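4.2 Preliminary Data

To establish feasibility before requesting continued support, the project team ran the inverse folding procedure on a target of 667 residues. The structure was first converted into the token representation described in Section 3, and no sequence information of any kind was made available to the design step. The complete token record follows.
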């Protein structure tokens, strides 16, 4: 019996027939739908006649649409059926009209399968192959690929499909990053996600639910199922996903149907649509979450709905915490996931939830205190939900070389982790790829090859990272912090406004242009105060008020403001301008200090500010609490500069070499 790797290689070879009319990155448009179609054809072969007979018997009857589908599915013995008299072998019988027959055959499937092929947009590819005279050749080759369940189990079929999805996505690396995550990253994420679940997943009859709200082709959900097969074969993991990319959705939905792991029985575990505008799993909770949302994508299209959700959310909802900048919606996916967390109530067999999500560096520190991103981080950390962050190497993804991070977020931290956050630095844990794939030049070693895997043996770096994480010990690559270590209070440091008063002819004319009705008042002030510069605005204004009162003049607030604006200028030699029992602040001298939450603010201010600026004060009414995670600062290693003698010696060697080369040229 051929292994799943052999089958994948065979199908991969058929793709060469597309060369010419299709570029290699476009092969998946044809090959993935045809693999699905051929698998369904083989699965339904044994009950084909029974379905046709049942359909004939029900023709023109009362049963229509979903009701008829259910009846024919029952006859087929599967969650789908095909009521067309055609199959792959019969399709070969009329090469000239094969395109029409193939479309007719697809339309003979139950609605759940037809929907998948609509999202594949496969009819366009059928016509394209027909016009290029390769349709018959491709179908003929697929007829020789036996995907009958007696030859290829559901599990092996899933592995074949996963293998092909990975290969085609790697081939199309210029766009793959939008809906495809490298295999080793998925393996690491699932290992971390299920790290503490041995006891839980060993319970008899245990069943868990997992959601990926940006599931793409379903690679992460497939990786989670693989983990269960390898480690907890008796446990059941129902996986759910949603994506707005048509082909990616169709691929993921096909995978679910082929494996027959769909909990609902109708291919509905994977849904098409925008998770924010059209949440297909509204009101539901899940035990596990996994996602690799797109980096740096704006959410202008969803802005109105998300703002409404934020404003109407309860105070305990993650949507209430805040909203990120509109040009990067990554954190929205985490808020979406947390909003579907299961509560912790072991008596009702509710064990809380765990989430693993990949982010760029931006969600770690973007946004100051009081800003949307900071408020989201604050909401998560103050509720003790952030368990750990693992920094990955750069150049790991197909369409970006930037640094990435895996966040583990949960409401069921282990006892020793409560109140703590672990940072794991795996940025230098990688091996060079033999051939770059887009921006992906590195990978994390997965360990020795197994199960017919085509990769060469690699160091077990994933296992090393998981052990580093699981030991929960502080060392060079693993740091343990209290939750409060990432919080700070942003305090406002004020300094007094200091003004110099002086009336000049030019300024006097400028004032009267704006307020000509105050001519008499200004003349009196000019005569009384004179034209010399004065450095105590408090005394100047007291004199002005006294003069105005004597004349019976009452200025409006706008006129008083105009007077100060025109006739004063800031001057460090001036006296501080009084305001109430204190002084008026100079906005241009205003500064801010981020005081760690663990520090006493007054003591910090006295030590770090007053020692340098004695006239400063704090405006505590403007205090804001913020949270940020500066990974580089916590893992920074100081490298002492080289000694000058060493640098001079190297320069001398370079000069000598240059002189030697010049002599060779001139001699």
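Position-by-position output of the design step:
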């Amino acid at each position: 019996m051929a292994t799943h790797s052999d089958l994948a290689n065979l199908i991969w070879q058929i793709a060469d027939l597309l060369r010419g009319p299709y570029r290699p990155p476009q092969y998946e448009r044809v090959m993935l739908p045809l693999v699905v179609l051929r698998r369904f054809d083989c699965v339904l072969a044994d009950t084909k006649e029974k379905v046709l007979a049942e359909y004939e018997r029900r023709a023109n009857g009362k049963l229509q649409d979903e009701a008829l589908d259910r009846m024919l599915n029952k006859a087929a013995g599967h969650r789908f059926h095909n009521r067309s008299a055609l199959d792959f072998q019969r399709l070969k019988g009329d090469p000239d009209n094969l395109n029409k027959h193939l479309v007719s055959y697809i339309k003979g499937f139950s609605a759940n399968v037809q929907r998948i092929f609509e999202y594949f947009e496969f009819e366009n590819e059928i016509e394209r192959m027909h016009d290029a005279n390769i349709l018959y050749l491709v179908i003929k080759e697929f007829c020789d690929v036996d995907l009958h369940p007696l030859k290829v189990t559901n599990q092996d079929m899933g592995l074949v499909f996963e293998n092909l999805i990975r290969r085609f996505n790697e081939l199309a690396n210029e766009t793959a990053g939008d809906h495809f995550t490298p295999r080793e990253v998925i393996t690491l994420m699932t290992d971390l996600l299920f790290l503490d679940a041995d006891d839980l997943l060993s319970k008899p009859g245990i069943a868990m639910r997992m959601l990926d709200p940006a599931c793409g082709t379903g690679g992460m959900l497939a990786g989670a199922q693989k983990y269960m097969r390898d480690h907890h074969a008796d446990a059941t993991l129902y996986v759910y996903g949603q994506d707005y990319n048509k082909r990616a959705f169709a691929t993921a939905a096909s995978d679910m149907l082929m494996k027959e792991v769909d909990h609902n029985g109708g291919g509905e575990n994977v849904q098409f649509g925008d998770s924010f505008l059209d949440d297909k799993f509204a009101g539901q909770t899940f035990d596990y979450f996994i996602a690799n949302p797109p980096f740096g994508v704006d959410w202008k299209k969803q802005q109105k709905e998300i703002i409404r959700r934020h404003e109407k959310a309860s105070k305990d909802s993650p949507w209430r915490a805040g909203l990120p900048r509109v040009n990067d919606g990554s954190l929205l996916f985490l808020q979406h996931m947390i909003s579907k967390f299961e509560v912790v109530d072991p008596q009702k067999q509710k064990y809380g939830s765990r989430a693993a999500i990949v982010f760029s560096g931006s969600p770690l520190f973007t946004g100051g205190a009081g800003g949307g991103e900071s408020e989201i981080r604050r909401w998560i950390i103050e509720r003790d939900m952030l368990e750990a962050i693992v920094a990955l190497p750069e150049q790991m993804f197909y369409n970006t070389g930037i640094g990435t991070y895996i966040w583990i977020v949960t409401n069921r931290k282990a006892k020793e982790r409560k109140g703590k956050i672990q940072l794991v630095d795996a940025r230098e844990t990688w091996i060079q790829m033999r051939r770059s794939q887009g921006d992906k030049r590195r990978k994390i070693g997965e360990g020795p090859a197994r199960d017919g895997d085509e990769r060469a043996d690699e160091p077990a770096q994933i296992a090393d990272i998981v052990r580093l994480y699981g030991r929960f010990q502080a060392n060079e690559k693993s740091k343990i912090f209290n939750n409060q270590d990432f919080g700070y209070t942003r305090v406002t440091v004020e300094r007094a406004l200091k003004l110099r008063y002086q009336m000049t002819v030019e300024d006097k004319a400028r004032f009267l242009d704006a307020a000509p009705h105050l001519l008499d008042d200004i003349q009196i002030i000019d005569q009384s105060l004179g034209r010399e510069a004065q450095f105590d605005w408090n005394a100047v204004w007291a004199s002005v008020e006294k003069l105005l009162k004597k004349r019976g003049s009452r200025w409006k607030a706008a006129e008083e403001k105009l007077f100060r604006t025109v006739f004063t200028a800031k001057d460090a030699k001036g006296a501080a301008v009084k305001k109430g029992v204190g002084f008026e602040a100079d906005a241009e001298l205003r500064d801010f200090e981020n005081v760690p939450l663990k520090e006493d603010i007054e003591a910090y201010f006295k030590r770090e500010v007053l020692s340098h600026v004695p006239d400063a004060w704090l405006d505590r009414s403007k205090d804001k609490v913020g949270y940020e995670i500066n990974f580089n600062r916590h893992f920074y290693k100081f490298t002492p500069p080289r000694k000058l003698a060493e640098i001079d010696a190297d320069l001398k060697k370079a000069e000598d070499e240059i002189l030697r080369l010049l002599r060779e040229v001139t001699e």
